[in-house]
């Protein structure tokens, strides 16, 4: 789905009071996905500043959906507007295969992961564009804590009020999305003890994290106006919450997920995210009173997000405002059971297969930890990441 290629963290001009904040609703639950890829040195396995060369050739080859990211050691591959998870898969597979061939021809490898296992982020090189230089000016040292890689999923919703209500309802599932995508246990050669160090690192940035609770689209518009008037942001695009509205696309954008370790799990998360949105819209039709929300659940959302960031699928999260806790894995298993009929109605149920047997599920974080502890060698882990991605693109089932 078309999107700005990177955040403009610092307003570049006086905030505009005429920015179009009309929500251009989607009549169907359309889909779009954006994948942030690691560019690796073939010999060392470290991140390598190859984006300028790769993107130049991709442009010459007319490969759609490939764009720059903040650092030269990463780039993004994204879809257009899709009507099914199968369409997302097919668009991404084609574009990823072609981008990987380009990277290989230039001496680089590609891999999927929320962070690189041992890269020293102070050695990263910012992409040579003015907007990224403004990010460095504003964020200083924090810029180099953004060498992280995520999956963003867009789902179409009919109008702005629905977007706000669905966002409020789905905040409680942020831990579930972190747990299934968690794939960043290592940071600069250290086991952080976290399932998702990316989620923790991203929380350092302004305008990120759990979105505030807005009851109506008008309230969000007012929020944006205040932020623009105070020159805090230049546009709603400068807001990087875990779930944020995109009025220009008529979607909710889910930004919470690490880049998963495989394309099959990526498609499962895309399917699950769409089901969550569809389910919430159905609930609103059946029980309009839920639009009032429960502010208490919003208050505990940040703690639940942290528990999933730390423990992943093993988290014991807070299920009710009264303090009752429950294993996140058990709650997620029941959630998947509830979502399967919705996925089947959309023709997406086959994509949820990796999440159906959670007793056999291995997160990317667990997979990486196990591999490193077996070999004790960072390069061996990176080689496995490269091979897993390449094998899946070539249609070979990866056995670990």
Count of folded domains: 1
Unreliable segments (pLDDT under 50, ≥5 consecutive)? Answer: 2-17
By DSSP, the count of extended strands is 13
What is the count of DSSP helices, taking H or I runs of 4+ residues? Answer: 14
**Approximately what portion of the residues adopt beta-strand conformation?**
5-15%
Oligomer: single chain
Helix and strand composition category? alpha+beta
Order of helices and strands: EHEEHEHEHHEEHEHEEEHHHEEHHHH
Shape: globular
What's the quick description here?
This protein has 400 residues and is of the alpha+beta class.
Give structural notes:
The protein starts with 30 loop residues before the first strand and ends in a 7-residue tail after the last helix. It is of the alpha+beta class and 400 residues long. The protein is globular and about 60 Å long. It is built from 14 helices and 13 strands. Helix 4 packs across helix 8 (263-286) and helix 5 runs parallel beside helix 10 (301-311). The chain has a single domain (31-393), classed as 2-Layer Sandwich (Creatine Kinase, Chain A, domain 2). It has helices at 51-60, 85-105, 130-139, 160-170, 174-181, 197-202, 217-229, 263-286, 295-299, 301-311, 328-346, 353-356, 364-375, 378-393, and strands spanning 31-41, 66-68, 74-78, 108-111, 150-156, 186-187, 190-191, 208-209, 240-241, 243-246, 251-258, 316-318, 325-327. Strand 10 and strand 11 (251-258) form a beta hairpin. Helix content is 42%, strand content 14%. Strands 1, 2, 3, 4, 5, 10 and 11 form a seven-stranded antiparallel β-sheet that branches.
């Amino acid at each position: 789905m078309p999107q700005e290629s990177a955040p403009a963290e610092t307003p570049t001009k006086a905030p505009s009071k005429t920015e179009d904040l009309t929500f251009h609703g989607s009549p169907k639950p359309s889909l779009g996905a954006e994948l942030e890829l690691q560019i690796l040195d073939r010999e060392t396995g470290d991140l390598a500043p190859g984006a300028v060369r790769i993107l130049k050739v991709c442009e010459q080859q007319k490969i759609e959906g490939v764009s720059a990211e903040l650092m030269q050691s990463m780039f993004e591959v994204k879809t257009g507007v899709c009507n099914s998870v199968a369409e997302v898969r097919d668009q991404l597979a084609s574009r990823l295969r072609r981008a990987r061939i380009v990277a290989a021809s230039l001496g680089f490898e590609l891999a999927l992961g929320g962070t690189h296992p041992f890269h020293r982020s102070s050695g990263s090189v910012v992409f040579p564009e003015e907007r990224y230089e403004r990010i460095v000016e504003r964020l200083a040292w924090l810029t180099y804590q953004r060498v992280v890689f995520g999956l963003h999923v867009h789902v179409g919703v009919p109008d702005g009020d629905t977007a706000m209500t669905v966002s409020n309802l789905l905040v409680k599932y942020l831990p579930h999305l972190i747990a299934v995508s968690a794939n960043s246990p290592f940071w600069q050669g250290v086991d952080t003890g976290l399932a998702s160090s990316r989620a923790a690192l991203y929380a350092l940035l302004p305008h990120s994290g759990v979105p505030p609770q807005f009851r109506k689209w008008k309230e969000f518009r007012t929020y944006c106006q205040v932020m623009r008037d105070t020159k805090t942001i230049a546009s709603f695009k400068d807001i990087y919450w875990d779930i944020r509205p995109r009025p220009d696309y008529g979607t909710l954008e889910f930004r919470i997920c690490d880049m998963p370790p495989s394309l099959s799990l990526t498609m499962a998360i895309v399917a699950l995210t769409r089901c969550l949105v569809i389910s919430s819209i159905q609930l609103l039709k059946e029980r309009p009173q839920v639009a009032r929300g429960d502010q208490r659940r919003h208050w505990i959302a940040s703690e639940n997000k942290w528990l999933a960031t730390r423990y992943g699928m093993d988290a014991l999260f807070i299920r009710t405002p009264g303090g009752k806790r429950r294993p996140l894995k058990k709650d997620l298993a029941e959630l998947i059971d509830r979502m399967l009929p919705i996925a089947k109605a959309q023709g997406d149920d086959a994509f949820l297969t990796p999440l159906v047997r959670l007793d056999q599920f291995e997160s990317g974080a667990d997979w990486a930890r196990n591999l490193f502890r077996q070999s004790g060698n960072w390069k061996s882990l990176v080689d496995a990441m490269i091979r897993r991605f390449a094998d899946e693109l070539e249609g070979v089932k990866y056995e670990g």
